[in-house]
Design a protein that fits this description.
By secondary structure, the protein is an all-alpha fold. It is built from ten helices and two strands. The protein is flat and about 60 Å long. Keywords: Ion channel, Ion transport, Membrane, Potassium, Potassium channel, Potassium transport, Transmembrane, Transmembrane helix, Transport.
Amino acid sequence: MTIDKTPAAEETRFAALRAKLRKLYHGRTRAALRFQLAVTVVDLAAIVFFIASPMLRDRPSFLWIDYTVAAILGIDIAARALASSDIGRWFRQPTIWVDLLVLVTLLFPQTLANLGFLRILRLWTLSRSGVLWGPLERNGYGEWRETVHAVMNLLTFLFVVTGFVYTFFFNEGSGVVGYVDAFYFTVATVTTTGFGDIVLPGTWGKLTAIVTMIVGISLFVRLAQAIFRPAKVFFPCPQCALQRHEMDAVYCKACGHMLKIPDDSD
């Protein structure tokens, strides 16, 4: 049996691969949903590793885990690119650039050790992933999108700042105790509690605290708005593409186009 290696056959196999990946990443079949759930679980496990990685750098198994996660993330990025109907448009998305940055820090863990805390940004990209939100929206949880985004933004900021503080202001090898101190400082600063028992030294320490307080307060306000303001549904307006509308809206408030928002109350 001979395998056809002509350009037309290769192109056909490549198109079939893209179609299969598109079904897995964006489909609604039972197999696709299982695949999307598995991808989300693997992402969450990787994020746990990213959070703990500043404390694990000296462990013998760190590099093995690091390169394993890099391989998985690289395959996922390539697969999502192939699953996209427009790779150019997909590549221009900010979440893709963040994922590529995370991948670079994983591929060069020793050279870019001081930038390892940026890996937590993967939590932000996960919260905006269609693989995560596709099944949730189909099951009626789409109205929680803005609240979840606000929570994820705050958590991402807390862990990124914690990793930054631990990396640049605490002694290497301080382990869990040092990381907890860094996290404690971050939370106390973001909430403007200001106990003062842990203070970052020098001018850079003061500037870090100032930026943490300003951004942290803004994220808290955003979270409060997402929780307490009236609920809205996500339904793109066919005319102007406005995403959020009141649940009982008949016309788009931006352009006046008539909407036909599905009623899932029955």
